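note to self — DONT lose this again. spent like an hour looking for the file last time. sequence + predicted structure for the chain T wanted, 484 res
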Amino acid sequence: MRNLFRASLAVIAVLTAVSTVEGHAAPLIGPQASAAEIRAAHGDPGPAYRIAYEKTIDGVSSPMEVTLAPGYVAIKSEDQQTVLDFKLRRAIDIVPEKRSFANWSLFWHVSFRVHEAMNRTHMRKTLRAMNSDLARQIDPYYVGAELGVPLPDEPNPAIEKTRGPDGTLGFVYDGVEVVSVTPSTVRLPGSLRQRFVQYMRYRLQVHPDIADALAELEFVPQTISYVYMPNSALPESRHVTLELKSTGDAKADYPLPADYKPEPLTLTHSDELTPVRDLLPVMLQATAGTYGSGPRTTASYKSAIDAAMREKKILQALTLALELSLQRGDQLETCDPADSSCHTFPEIIEAARKDERATALMTSLQLDATDPAAATAMREGIDRKDISNAYLIDAFLANGLIAQDKRKEEALRLLQGAIRGNPYASNFYKDIGDYYFRSFDHNIAWLFYDFGRSLPERNQAGNNVLAGVDRMEASLALSFPGFF
């Protein structure tokens, strides 16, 4: 049922809707950054405050610790250490036994929640239209509590707030006390109250309306108890309690040791991500500018185009001109009349009209919007064994297959091949990121978006394809400020 409604329409709607929002700068820190670079970019962490709890889920208890600082929240449990860095907008998973860490964008966390909420809303509406009793299981309160964002196009759930004589705050929904917070006598530093609420948004399953109400907390909670339903569609609820054990000032040092090694997929073990893991060395070298001889220069492209035109290899000249445009935004609009080795794009197009293979490629690109199946068939029929950058045609083919929701595994392999062919072309990172975005693998989508935005010269004039991701992030930060 969940997969049935994961249509790409909602995803595309969000991607296009945010285009009117002013984008912010690319991330200060990408997934390739060293621990020392992260520490330097964050700067002085300022005073930190530690809160230790015992967390009990359905009778099973374990210790956990939350450290609040002006720019971050660090969370430590028996099996996980995470830093939510709000200054750098990164989530850093630390693995002490391996002395390594993975550094992710905070935005994927929020993007996934938002789009999963859209997915649940679509499911709920569809089940209602079918008069199915299952619609009641997709409850706006419990979905909002699970995801930390409200269901779109649904009224806010009716939550009653109560206050006991000891200052305990209670929140009642549908006759059930879903959240209870009892204050201690320890005052929560005023400058860090926002960080504690952000910890709850990211890690505790409480509805965002309740998280907003708890922003008034003046004292460290002695106990936090809440009820939630995993996946918001199971009849069995789960009961969670956090019991305060100790508080105090923490060491004024950023919680990521400077000598830890970045491993972008260190905690991601799925076999499905093996191809991504295999690409990591290529992408890491590309962001450092050390893959091959570095990004291909405009002069190199122009020289290769001239050679292809002289040898009447028109498809080769066309693909090189297209790749130059994608990578550097150079449209080859003008040439010095005295330079016979320079060829404008109109000149190359005119030659392409007389070449069967080049004409097929140009026609396929024109057909993408009106007849994607015909465009795909045309590209598949192009003989490209003699083309040095055939991966560009493969990328066009892959995007067409993805748009038709066909042969997705093949499309993914083709896009991976495109990155291997030219790991300095940010378009390929955007394409493969969008593939994972549509598949609801937002963490991997942002991994590629961030690698693409970390490439040398990615902001070439006329070519900033990942500016759309910048705008999407700006829209998320504007719409859901509590997460940032």
